[in-house]
Amino acid sequence: MMEPGLGAVIFLTFAIIIVFSLGAWLVYRVMTKPGAHIGSRLPKHDPHAEADPTDPSHLGPGDSPDDGPDELR
Asked: Between the CA of residue 24 and those of 11, 55, 61, what are the distances in Å?
């Protein structure tokens, strides 16, 4: 006959294996659909978005992205 605690350990072990297997199967099922990654649902370009402050295309002559505000110099 099994000890009283051994049955609980065996049950919990199988329960954890089943829960993780079900979770892994659900993740696999969702992520293998076409267009499942989050980048496919993001907008390509937002014309109303603010300019990226690190984007060098909007800097004028003599400006550097490494330069901070003049008050801190």
From this structure: 20, 40, 53
What element of type H or E holds 27?
Answer: helix 4-31
Give the whole-angstrom CA distance, residue 28 versus residue 39. 17
Give me the residue label for tokens 């049955």.
7
Neighbours of 19 (CB within 10 A): 10
Given a contact cutoff of 8 angstroms between Cβ atoms, the answer to whether 15 and 22 are in contact is: no
Residues 65, 59: contact at Cβ < 8 Å? Answer: yes
Which residues are CB-contacts of 34 (< 8 A; sequence separation ≥ 6)?
A: none
pLDDT tens-digit series, residues 12-68: 999 999 999 999 999 888 888 776 666 566 666 666 667 666 666 655 666 565 555
Two tokens at 55?
A: 């984007």
pTM: 0.45
